[in-house]
């Protein structure tokens, strides 16, 4: 595939994985192949080894399974290689160790984290995780009706830690993998009752963590010390004026942190909102982050991108950080934005494609 053509794979809330091709020169989107998969293949990840980049790992949320596919061509055709039990209910998110020796899986329904080893070819070595490879967080029921049980939402591998937002427990766990089991080394401090942490990202310097809280629609910024407790630095509402966090079935969803567009320039932090009870479409919230001081977070001059779509669940950027894909599951389809202005803190829509029920974009190239 030429440098101006980019292949994206789109996970869905139905039973398909769709491929689309974005031509950055012509600024067009065209459909590629569609693959019938398990029910709700809602998260996709690639193998970290450059020699195994044709392997794509997919969850099966409804069936509690994991799948590994081989990418066959530049139209996004996929060949199923194997499937296994994820070891929990509602596998929602996964991440693979940098050396490719295994993956960690977050389960929303059972509230657990599991580990699955991989062989040198990137294939699963077991049909289900060992019991000692399952982490079940401690939990006490909270006031919010979605916090009666643990609901683990994401896996973020940071240095030697595994950061795990747990919406139900109202915590971001800090775990370590010993090679045989999980150790709890701490948690991120400063979350308030009813925040409901969903996803997070870490500053490139490793000093701060940014948490998108689904229930409160708040972005929280915390220190991330190597030793000792973290501290809350700041919090921002992710909602534009007139919108509100209550009376919505779901709230804040995704968070991504994009590199500077010029040396010494700021990073762009994007978070997405869903299911506004006030407006017909949902918004992206835009923040500027210092590349040298992770505590320096500000709203961009524009602040929000409005009128994009409904239920903005999936947001993802290409490797360069120039192009941003946004998915409206319940309206708006797929839209591609280009970062513009001197600091790359604004987004300009360049093309769109109607595609239904999509929830996660994976940029292949």
Automatic annotation (TrEMBL):
PANTHER family: 6-PHOSPHOGLUCONOLACTONASE (PTHR30344:SF1), 6-PHOSPHOGLUCONOLACTONASE-RELATED (PTHR30344). Belongs to the cycloisomerase 2 family. It comes from Cryptococcus deneoformans (strain JEC21 / ATCC MYA-565) (Cryptococcus neoformans var. neoformans serotype D). One of its GO terms (molecular function) is 6-phosphogluconolactonase activity. This is Uncharacterized protein. Pfam families: Lactonase.
